[in-house]
């Protein structure tokens, strides 16, 4: 079927580690408040990390626990398409990465980049049908806590990127846990540019959300122009996760 929708020239992007729906230090379950805040931004594509698919014990404990998986609850009626990549599985449930999209998701695949004997990690690769544009590749990332593991996971990310068509636009976003700022040098060979580095000379401070000091979260792009990246560190965002969300508008070349 031919897509007759008007050409889309720009996409508003948001990435956030949802901290499994809990506030900093797990003091309160705040997923409904997080959904309300995310809806105010009218983002076109939302990258989510540490989002719960299900958790039976929490579901019995909290009165406002949604019946749907958290990514479906967050998508609600604003993001008709969504994809989930289950990474960590345990007796009470599972969590992983998710992507919410206002554009049709043509294909998605969750790539396991876990290092044996450590925490489970994945790269959720989705292909979006943006009217009037080449396929948009959106890759949601949550990397490990150890530098050696991150280095190997970034190598696997680069292996994925070199397999994509060279002219198609790419967004890679999420929680890189890259507090030593080593990722840029490794990803330079994949022709990715980080939006805050391009605009401000350094990645954004995003952790902890209330007093951001560490530069853990990133948004990288390829074949896209960058417009006004920003860190959402003021209320209500500072109380809705342990990571501050990052937002940017990207424009097609």
Automatic annotation (TrEMBL):
The keyword Endoplasmic reticulum does not apply. Pfam families: Exo_endo_phos. Gene3D superfamilies: Endonuclease/exonuclease/phosphatase. It comes from Halopseudomonas formosensis. GO terms for molecular function: endonuclease activity. Residues 34-243 form the Endonuclease/exonuclease/phosphatase domain. Keywords: Endonuclease, Hydrolase, Nuclease. This is Endonuclease/exonuclease/phosphatase family protein. SUPFAM superfamilies: DNase I-like (SSF56219). The keyword Hydrolase applies. InterPro entries: Endo/exonu/phosph_ase_sf, Endo/exonuclease/phosphatase, GPI-anchor_lipid_remodeler. Transmembrane segments: none annotated.
